[in-house]
């Protein structure tokens, strides 16, 4: 085959290829046009009517919905901002309520303490009016509490016996105050001499005045010099005591009597009876009593020392 024929044959083959490509492109164009036509709402046979004019209304509705949502958000934000204030008010009300409850609790506790204080006060005032056994039991309990380190045998050596006391329950009909104290003394104290224990220097002075002062009693307390009190005891209890024969009562405190007993034995001398009067009904402003105070243990110690060294001694509680 000639060269010319070969070239012609190749040209024909190329043209056929281009023709096929052209047909393919044409088919694609028609397909694209049909798709575009189908995308038009008017060409769709779906039974629906499309109103393009409503697009603006839809936009307005959407904007209104957004406005409503914004209004709701603003209201929500506002309520959220106000909520802490309401919470604060509730917390304040709860706090006020709790304060009232606390106040109520405190008032209840105060009432209980007040009732307890009244009970203890009445109990203290009832002790001097008790029997020998009741008074002895009170001092036994007191001594045991004040000496927790002592054994039972050691405690027995410092206990006060019930025979050491004389009951003054018969004086229960009258108030145990300074006004009635002279009558009490004349009724129950029959011994030539008597020691009256009071809880303080001021009370010593008050008791002294209630017994006609210097005519019948002497004050032995810290306001005097210790030597002066020792000399006074020697004058009243000495052999040459005619000048002081009318002095019957030694009014003192546990502290002063302890020092006197360390410096003189005159209270143990002689065979005469000796009465010991405890000014037990008196309560100071803090509701302390001679038999229920810081010096009560010392009082018991002094009483036991006198009882061990002097015969015919009896203890009476006023």
Defining key terms:
alpha/beta, 9 helices, Cms1, 8% strand, Rossmann fold, 2 domains, Protein CMS1, 318 residues
Description:
With 318 residues, this protein is α/β, with parallel strands linked by helices. It has 2 domains: 74-126; 130-317, Rossmann fold (3-Layer(aba) Sandwich), CATH 3.40.50.300. It is 58% helix and 8% strand. The chain is built from 9 helices and 6 strands, in the order ααααβαβαβαβαβαβ. The chain has helices at 3-39, 54-126, 132-146, 152-156, 181-188, 201-210, 226-237, 254-263, 296-309, and strands at 165-166, 193-197, 217-220, 249-252, 274-278, 313-317. It has a 6-stranded parallel beta sheet with strand order 1-6-5-2-4-3, with helices on both faces. Helix 7 links the parallel strand 3 (217-220) and strand 4. Helix 8 packs parallel to helix 9. The N and C termini lie far apart (165 Å).
Write the layout of secondary structure elements.
Elements: H1 3-39, H2 54-126, H3 132-146, H4 152-156, E1 165-166, H5 181-188, E2 193-197, H6 201-210, E3 217-220, H7 226-237, E4 249-252, H8 254-263, E5 274-278, H9 296-309, E6 313-317
Parallel strand pairs: 1-6, 2-4, 2-5, 3-4, 5-6
Helix pairs in contact: 8-9
